[in-house]
Task: structure prediction
Amino acid sequence: MPASFVEDRRRQALEIYDREPLPTWRRSGFWTTSLRQLRLDELAPRHHESVSSREDLPAIVAAALGDDDLAAVIVQRGASTVFSWIDPAIADAGVTFCSLENAVERHPELVEPWYMRRLSHDEGKFAAATAAFWTGGAFLHVPAGVRVEQPIQIVYLIDEPGSAQYAHTLAVVGEQADCRLREYCLAPDFAGQALHAGALEVYLEAGAQLKLASFQDWGGGEVYDISIKRVEVGRDAHCTWVPIHLGGHLTKQRLDIITAARGADMRHAGIYFTEGSEHLDLFTTDLHEQGDTTGDTVWKGALSGESRASYEGLIQIARDAQNSHTYLQTHSMLLSAKAKADAIPSLIVETDNVSASHGGTVGEIDEAQVFYMMTRGISRQDAIRILVEGYFEPVVQRIGDESLAQLVRARLAAKLAAAEPEVARYAAQR
Amino acid sequence: MSLEIENLHVRTGDREILRGVNLAIAKGETHALMGPNGSGKSTLANTIMGNPSYEVTDGRILFNGEDISAADPDERARAGVFMAFQYPAVIPGVSVANFLRTAVNARREEPIKVKDFGAMLKTHMDLLRIDRSFTKRYLNEGFSGGEKKRAEILQLAMLAPEIAILDETDSGLDIDALRIVADGVDALRGPAMGTLIITHYTRILKYIRPDFVHIMLDGRIVREGGAELADELEEKGYEFIRGEVAVADAG
Result:
């Protein structure tokens, strides 16, 4: 019998989903994200068979995970949980890690206090869709005081056109617990549309420590990603969150990180590199609800081809959040003549005795830097590669996970190599 | 003759800055190029390196007999020309060590062995009294003026060019920093390297005695001599030189 706290929400969400039209997001005439071309009624959940071992996972997943020593792995392919494993020692320590569907059935007492605590099913058509239709999903609960060294891995895979994947990840890190969580969204290149509508909710209890990485590479096909990710950081807890966007036809995401109690601290560092005709629309918020909280947000992006990326970053300091200190910076580097970037840092500050500053740049490769490097014998091509790698490097280092950092560096290098002819043309024009 | 500049005319935008510069530097020689601000010294240095902001409208630049006037900056560098910048660019995310290794490897067939690179780096860091930790920092990011200049000379040391151009390497340095830089350059010069020290002031020339001194005014070299010319310039100033030139032009 499915738990009512989930089913009630599904029902309410379905009503909203049915009545809401396909949204279009506009900002003051300069930016529009439109779903005009999404044929939502042609997409449906696709089910797949489970596999019994990590080696039997689809090649794209095996390649991303490599030989990494992991504490636990869940892989959702389309609408199905196809692989779920946890190191017995980690399970013995009290960690719960399984699909969210399983967790609702077998550990409802762990799930219910947290389920959609900070999410609403009434935040637009796709948030409602996720709440109404999610299957599989992932649930993590780390009990108080437990420390897990190796990364805990979630993978959402879409590998066939016509697929609608409604995903839901719920993670709770208990008091003074410490762990690393990676959520990968992967797709090979394929022709035809697919959709990932996801919800990620993460809760850090008092004194908890979490390194969270959200790695998205939906390939060069036509995958739409419309998701909400929300992290709540409790008293004296710390979260480092590194979202990485390296592929997706159209991505519209809201990423919120809430320092909800005194002493909460967060580091948010994001990377994106859009190519071809990709469209990326990100809205992040750094919300301080209580005083003595700290934050730091850095986003770095690069754009090639005719891609478009908009990054809007809001720092919001609530009335009770005196003595909070936070900072936001966003940078975009245009590598081709037709790419368009929008960077909008903003602030809403409702109290005093705080420090909050922000800045944003949109720029191109600096010819003075290129010339300097060439005078050292470095070719123009190598100079640009090194400059772009150097541009991303400080954020890549924040990932704090060498294996994922290598994966990211390799993908960035590949994208830059693919963009080389247009980078050369663009420089020649200027 | 390593570097020959023949009747060089250079323009930026619609302004002619160099109006027929002639200069020759051989390996083993130390030349000083002096002149007031705006005389064209930095333009000359940048043009020798192939800065695309400057257009050569007449004349040519020869390196070991070969015309490099149309060569790309990296080709000129790999051939053996080096410039220590007056305002070095910041290269974020790239450590000093990584940058140096990339530059060293750019002119080698096989990449340099890690051990060899380490030994070479240590030798030159000791020469310039640079701390270990320096090499992990991102190149020129947050560097003081003195640190930037020392980083330039470290690159000079590691790349061992045939012709080294120092563009106002002494500017913005206090006496101690100047001493270290000058001692470093002094230790590096020798029969295999020709040096062109571009400077506004005579200070650095007290530590590095030049073989030849050239004085530039309004885009031309107007006087040439030995090291004593620098002493004369210090004593009399640029205005005096300008006066002499005016008389000579009139007569």
Notes: The interface with chain B takes residues 366-369, 371-380, 382-383, 386-387, 389-394 of chain A (CB under 8 Å). The longest helix of chain A spans residues 402-429. The mean pLDDT of chain A is 95. Residues 241 and 377 of chain A are 38 Å apart (CA to CA).
